[in-house]
Specification:
alpha/beta, Rossmann fold, UDP-galactose 4-epimerase, domain 1, 322 residues, 7-stranded parallel beta sheet
């Protein structure tokens, strides 16, 4: 079965493409390169330059490449930007998914893996977030992901789609240095950026009710995220009635202070982190329950924090010529 990966030239998408190829699948990438990079697409993999909001392009790509299933990763994903541009985020993320689903139904393609996010939960005050934890997203970005899940579920009920909504927690690391995260929007690359500038890394808030006063987060290696997509693809190929909504996390939390200190140790930096004020909306604890995905797909994470930091640092050094 040939899979279309939308957003396959991006950070997570490029890892998913490689994982699907390694598992023996044919893959086609569709990406508008607004944030992706065509150098991330492996040689021999067709790259279609188009937006998921372009119905004519989707119809052509699905037909010409005889696509049998889709992994939909293409989306805008900056929380702050979504607050500034909520209408644009709904246009890009929700309407893009709607157009894709319409094209899939018209082409009789009935399998979809949807890239969702732990942002759908908001900031629940619970020790462990399960898939039953109420969803109260606190940003337009999180709202678009939750609406996207609803759209997938409703389309599945009406058109007999098999689907897997995958809720990523904090994705980090790199499968290879050239595939590292090119942005400094998440904690680990933000610390790298400060190290490179010779500035102390920032910790936002140290007065939470946690062992060291800093927030607790569940970080997941991008290679493990990609492996989860492979397992989801296998399930959808064998079960045309699959209806899954699953967390992708390690099920283990690490405090921000401990993570920052470990980054400084592994990069050989003698900088000392500084504590600044909390950021609005940050939860004290956000840790996934990974029980359901293990039960449904047999998947569990294999990489630890050191793997994430060292692989991400190798990618950062490559891009910044350090």
């Amino acid at each position: 079965m040939r899979w279309l990966v939308t957003g396959g030239a991006g950070f997570i998408g490029s890892h998913v493409v490689r994982a699907l190829l390694a598992d023996g699948r044919e893959v086609v990438v569709l990406d508008d390169l607004s944030t992706g990079d065509k150098s991330r697409v492996p040689d021999g993999v067709p790259l279609e330059l188009a937006s998921v909001r372009d119905r004519a392009a989707l119809d052509r790509v699905l037909a010409e490449h005889e696509i049998g299933a889709v992994v939909h990763i293409a989306a805008k994903k900056q929380v702050g930007e979504s607050v500034e541009k909520p209408l644009w985020y709904f246009e890009q993320n929700v309407d893009g998914l709607r157009v894709l689903l319409e094209a899939m139904v018209a082409a009789d393609i009935r399998r979809l893996v949807f890239s969702s996010s732990a942002a759908v939960y908001g900031s629940p005050d619970v020790p462990e977030i399960t898939e039953e934890t109420p969803c109260v997203p606190q940003s337009p970005y999180g709202q678009t992901k939750l609406v996207g899940e609803w759209l997938v579920q409703d389309a599945a009920a009406a058109h007999r789609l098999a689907y897997a909504n995958l809720r990523y927690f904090n994705v980090a690391g790199a499968g290879a240095p050239e595939l590292g995260d090119p942005t400094a929007l998440n904690l680990i690359p933000m610390v790298f950026e400060r190290i490179e500038a010779g500035l102390p890394p920032r910790i936002f808030g140290a007065d939470y009710d946690t062992p060291d006063g800093t927030a607790i987060r569940d970080f997941i290696h991008v290679g493990d995220v990609a492996a989860a997509h492979v397992e989801a693809a296998r399930r959808l190929e064998s079960d045309d009635r699959a209806a899954l909504t699953l967390n992708i996390g390690r099920g283990e939390g690490v405090t921000v202070r401990r993570l920052v200190e470990r980054i400084l140790e592994l990069t050989g930096s003698d900088l000392v982190a500084e504590v600044t004020a909390r950021r609005p909306g940050d939860a004290a604890r956000s840790v996934a329950s990974a029980a359901r995905i293990k039960a449904e797909l047999g998947w569990s994470a294999t990489h630890d924090i050191d793997d994430m930091v060292t692989s991400a640092w190798a990618g950062w050094r490559l891009r910044h010529d350090i």
